[in-house]
Amino acid sequence: MRRPDVRVAGAVIALLVIAGAGAAYFLTRPAASVRLNLVADTQLAALELPGEPSGSCGTRVCRSILRVDRSDETRPVKVTAQGALPEGVRLAYWGCAEGPGAATCTVRPDRDTTICVTTTGPADVARKACGTRPGPPVSAASGKLTVLFNTEWDIKVFGNFEEPCTNGGVLGRKCQITMKPGKIYYLRSQPADPSPPGQPNPDYNYADYEGCDSGMGHGSAGICIVFGATTAKTVCLSTGDPAEQRLARECLAYRKAQTP
Q1: What is the biggest distance separating any 2 CA atoms in the chain, rounded to whole angstroms?
Q2: Same domain flag for 97 and 168
Q3: Has residue 47 been placed in a domain?
Q4: Can you tell me the distance from the alpha carbon of 90 to that of 231, in angstroms, rounded to the nearest whole number?
Q5: Where on the tree of life does the source sit, at the highest rank (predicted)?
């Protein structure tokens, strides 16, 4: 009987060992990772980004790279301010599942992506910090922004929208503005002073807003900022007229929960 070739048998055994080792590697190798590119873009405060710093911080922009395991499960991404933000101002995230300008951020780490964080402070909003960065797909649906005039003053609200918005001096009148998701709306107001000619009252010739995404109690010298969404939002407008203090207090019910 012919004896088996020792060299052939050795080669077969070696191939089996290699195949087994390869299978074990693919079964035990670590999950592939994805890269989350984080960008902090704000003029108001220094922000602490998770991950490894990427380059040096400029006058207002810092970057980091956060590597996480690839997964279909969502996970939070949290950026913190190194100091206290101004009253009524919060962080705003772009590129997260919650949508543009969200107060919190979660992502599904199934691919490399970029997340930008800024603040709702007027200085950051005015220069559209992070606003041009891609977010999740925008829904074709629209939402409604209601402006409630809780005042008898004749006030006109204007901004980057087409709908007329005024109360004609009628208490409780409302106007509605169609919102597009992802768009930032800037509301300004111009009260008409009802004082007799020659006797102006500059001490309370202003309007206050409650319900803005940019914070609480904006006077007419400021801007009420509302992030467009597919939901319904309400901004309550009152004045500093001492005779309308009760009406101004009623607007506090519309104050955003995340503002002081």
Answers
A1: 127
A2: no
A3: yes
A4: 20
A5: Bacteria
